[in-house]
Amino acid sequence: MTNTPNPGRNGLLSAGMCWLLFSCCFMLTAQQPPAPDTDAETIQKDEPATFKSRVNLVMVPVVVRDGKGRAVGNLRKEDFRLFDKGKPQAISSFSVEKPGSPAAVHLEPVEPGEAEKPGAPPPLTIPTRFAVYLFDDIHVSFGDLARSRDAAGRHLARSLQPMDRVAIFTTSGRVTLDFTDDRAQLQQTLLRIRPTPIARTFVRECPDVSYYQADMIINRNHPDALNVAVEEAVACAPPGIRITPEMVRAIAHRALMVGDTETHQALAAVTDAIRRISIMPGARSIVLVSPGFYTPITEDRGSVMDRAIRANVVISSLDARGLYVIIPGGDASRPAPRTVSASLRKADWDRATAQEQANVLAELADGTGGSFFHDNNDLDEGFKRVAAAPDYLYVLGFSPQNLKLNGQYHALKVALANPSKLSLKARRGYYAPTSLASAEDQAKREIEEAIFSREETQELPARMSTQFFKSSDTTARLTVIVHVDVKQMSFRLADGRNLNDLTLAYGLFDRNGNYILGQQKRVLMKLRDLTLKRMTVSGLTVKTGFDVKPGGYAIRLVLRDSEGHQMTALNGAVEIP
Predict the structure, then answer these.
(1) What is the largest CA-CA distance in the chain?
(2) Does residue 124 belong to any structural domain of this protein?
(3) Which pLDDT does position 249 carry in this prediction?
(4) Could you give the 3-state DSSP secondary structure of residue 530?
């Protein structure tokens, strides 16, 4: 495994292009195909997928814990109450997920007894859990970073399992390691992380105006925020310098621009991490290690949570500051305002800044089903908690009635019908869209969610097997054979034919879970009664081929029929020596 480029640039951009390539592969068709036989009873062809889409569905992850902090997984839809801007909502979709559970693999051997032959390759270990450790090197101090970096190294050294793959990213993009199980590389990458502010300097301003305070001065015209900064400037300025509000406003303007730049980069890095991990076929989590950062435009973090929820990514956050206390005049390197009153008010602003920074970490965790570890110096215990996905995650979905496309914020509240010593954390709100996604975009999202997942369903009985042929030491032809039991499929009778279309989508991944390529076939069935009767006995067999190099591969298969809207998703693996 080698280091990838900057995740905010080419590295994750190329990874994010996987879905685009996947879509393109779906649309490939043979050149100059023969004209279809109008009397044919089954036609196989490649074309874009058309899955049933969800419209205006807001997803709300919820984690419920008992009095001992253990996740509870035996609740039903009727046990929850959901409110949008204080108005009760009907929960239209409900699921209970186990984010940390490994995915099953169902695949017949290539040939009977093949695995027992001398010299046969060992069984392929398919990764099922993927985690990004995202270090906020833009905002963190060296001391906080060193402590959290060392704790992360100890945690990975003792907790990494064969089914795990870990990536390390930084918000600045200076240090990156793509998904791997190489412990030595993980430790070496951690040691390379350093504080990397991209707009700030290490020289303390006079006055020292935080991003939060600058936003209050410039954008919200808060008089006390300006007055405290002026008094601090008087205390720290060299003798003989006359301090004016205009001078302090200029410093606040610079602090605001610096904060805008660094917060935008940090949120972009979180988004890039979600985009990267969303194409990994398994349980997905992000551990954000940060002192927190202020986001005056809350829509930004709302869009981050929406993207994570759609991709089934759990974000947990660890406050790298540990346990900290803000004491008026406690920083000896920073002259305090000359009056006790101003010193106390300055401490109030510092505490408000710290709280706003922590709120971002808390909201990202609560809104995606993750954990937030804070106000504690035991970072070893912290990584243990935030790296563990919740045992049970409820996902409530509702369709807002008469939703206006105005981009306004909607506060959400989730409650239990019978709390009974139970506590919950849930998404706090969402922003109304300004426009609706097209049917094509919604269909693409459905395909992406199904293919880049490891959850198995068997609504349509099917089984998958593989064959391969090596034409040389570097090339092979992999054939995936799918046998579908037709007896449980629904058919629509029209013009004396039994009609149903079956869509089969395939995704191929390497042994580290990285997406390689995909294909889709659509089987159009127009069966006479006699043919349908025979097929219910023999079943339907579909073969799909891939040109690959020798190596280990994970295979993801998704089937969907057009009449019954039944779906089957299977995981498989093959080792080509």
Answers:
(1) 102
(2) no
(3) 94
(4) helix
